[in-house]
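Fig. S4 source data, part A: sequence.
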Amino acid sequence: MADLTRLAAADLAAKLASGEVSSVEATQAHLDRIAQVDGDVNAFLHVSDHAIDQAQRIDDARRAGEQLPELAGVPLAVKDVLVTTDMPSTSGSKILEGYMSPYDATVVARARAAGLVPLGKTNMDEFAMGSSTEHSAYGPTRNPWDLDRIPGGSGGGSAAAVAAFEAPLALGSDTGGSIRQPAHVTGTVGIKPTYGAVSRYGAIALASSLDQIGPVSRSVLDAGLLHDVIGGHDPHDATSLEGAWPSFAAAAREGATGEVLTGLKVGVVKELPDSGFQPGVADSFRASIAMLEKAGAEIVEISAPHFEYAIAAYYLILPAEASSNLAKFDSVRFGMRVDVPGGTVEDVMAATRDAGFGPEVKRRIILGTYALSAGYYDAYYGSAQKVRTLIQRDFANAFADVDVIASPSAPTTAFRLGEKLDDPLAMYANDLATIPANLAGVPGISIPSGLASDDGLPVGIQFLAPAREDARLYRVGAALEALLEDDWGGPLLDRAPALTGGTR
């Protein structure tokens, strides 16, 4: 039997539906893979004790003749920002070590209802604060392409699990690029849906106006299949959008024909110059743009003059919302508690937060509290919100002229572990290309665009579309993916180094 861990989710689903493979076999193969390589990668914080039992129930239902959803029996990795009833939910923090939720996040509940089998919880920067997964309280995740390099962040665990063939699909969260940027550096596909298109209920909040849950996969079609499962209105989420959504898997299948590229207007932002990106990243982007143009797309230079202020605005809005959201970790209601003999509640709270939060979380809480304080609110938080409105206007003006906007997904390839850990500003700059979409609430996709010419590491191209036009991204992403894989002779991950079974 072929290695089940190397199959795309769509292909594995077809084998499960035909009876050629059982869910128990597929799940066990991935659990074995985790046991084999995760000691090196550290993608998982917790591996499920119930995965085989859940897979067995799917097999029993299939043998009984039940009509099951397309992805029934396919294994799934879950970012630890999403709460689960049968596994700890820590959000990568010591302050929640061992915490068991009384309910599942909506996306997890929907995945279970569709027959997907959760394999475990993936590593992440603490409370999703970071761009490298080095800020996890449980140690860094490593990039399967080069174990001395970062897998991106904050969702590096989900991306690394998919890239290392430990899971065919994963759930992630994207607050400023935490799905797309890890996809860029690991050679995977990552989608940030339109804000409100996927429920945030049960996602441990970082910045509520920016957070969005989305799929991580090895192909655009696989991402669409998972998106179809987790998306749609949720009455538990006050920000959830109402109304019907098209099938994103169908959009990906349509896009793979390539016909959608003819006449497509692709915007390239002139304020994101090549000089701001690593040469190998810029070269790969230009090659992909040339491929799109050759296939019939029209490349249009657009202006987004306020994008340059996106990072500054983001790092005022996010810490302000984070300082509010993280106030509930107070040692009283749940989570760890540091006893202070003879101390007051305030003493216990201070000691617990000091011991339970890492340095990056403390940095952002302090910054956010300061930005919201009396006398500074209008100067900092209020001004950042005004910049946010200007960025939203830039998008509206751009989408009046183009169908999608394209850019590199991140300025560099994966940097070495520790390289930027003591330089927060350099770390923050890594989200240069992804942050504007979160500020505006528009959807974005990152797909692999090749290997950088200067270091041979994966590079991604990002497409952005207007709000609610997520299906457009699936069509365009699948079309370019098909062209690139024809050129490469197969998926980019087939060329990964020894850990993933390929050769560069």
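Fig. S4 source data, part B ends here. The CA atoms of residues 31 and 119 lie 7 Å apart.
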